[in-house]
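Cross-check.
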Amino acid sequence: MVLSSLQNRKYRIGGYRPGRKPENTKYHHSDRFQADQLPRKVDLRKHMTEVEEQVGNSCVANAFVGAYEYLAKRDLGEAGNVSRLFVYYNARAREGYENDDCGSQMYCAIDSLIEYGACCEDIWANDESLICEEPDTNAYEHAANFKITEAEFIETDLDLWRHTLAEGYPIAFALNTFESFDDATQNRGRVPMPKRLDNVRETHGWHAMLCVGYSDKDRMFIVRNSWGVAWGDRGYCYIPYDYVMHLDYNGHDSWIIKAVNDLDFSVDVWEEGDSVFADEGSLLLYDFYIRTTNPEGFIEELDALCQNYVETEEDYYFDYEEEETEEEYIVHVNSFDLTIDDPDEFLEELDTLCENYASDEDYGYYIESDASEEEEEYSEEESDASEEEEEYSEEEEEYNEEEEEYSEEEYEE
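Predicted model, tokenized:
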């Protein structure tokens, strides 16, 4: 399926073909770290090669080639461009579809990397006219020197994914994408949760990508797409945990590949737990929820309120999920981000809005912004000053005691 973005660029989606796992599938079990040792944020992007644009329905091959180039770069310090169409052709050939640009199965791509390896793109180019052409002998001879050793299946479990990424392994996975997936280009790469209306539309289809990190603060995975650097955030996007882990949206066909057994790639990928989107002037709200009987009205007015405080729509973002109870809804507002110089007036209006819509004033959020950080720094300085004053008072008290003792001795004499 071909999509057209707002920039009139065409992107291909629907290249993932579901398939069964082989009987001898090896499952990945993360035991390198304890749960309390995991960092709040992992980002493998500094070790990834540049995001390239797929041709045809080659998203599966692009995901695994991205992982392959990453492993080569971590192990050898550099990585050449690996031929995605070489992998794509051999993956299709294992099903007998080498003459059709019909997408491929995950394990067929893995199997081709184990049996044939991967040649460089200089030998077999990423040219759409070559999609259904069998690579030449030179390509196979070159690829035979660059085989992967094994692959491991990753079950759809949030803690397991976080562990795996913290170990330094990117995860190739399949996701059902909706029309809202296109919004990532306008939202600094953020992909919203599918809404109820999305579910009744025709979906774009299943798409394979590569998960390369996570942010607990934002509750999002960092994901490498295959639509070039002009899409999303320089080719990457940020997808909510709840979306990727959703039983209906995840293809439950996720894998890591290994070039050499038991290499430790966890070095230099752990980061502090700051939000991916924390910039100067950003007002970030977390754990934002409201219990209301009118979720649509609240979201509409929240959107209008944000627009009153920004110059362009790119200066704010939020996503939301609705949780239906017996008579009401709990609206969870996620990834709230507003670029604003002075947030005080906005927050006053936000509280008024929430009070108008909340049932029994049941709403809440907590704030993180530059202003609050400055206040925190000021409080720390004030605390330090108080400690210094306290130390000075203690010294003065000790001096007075010594003086008093001296006076008593003088009096006795």
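The chain has two domains: 2-271, 278-413. The first helix runs from residue 59 to 76. Passed to J.P. for a second look.
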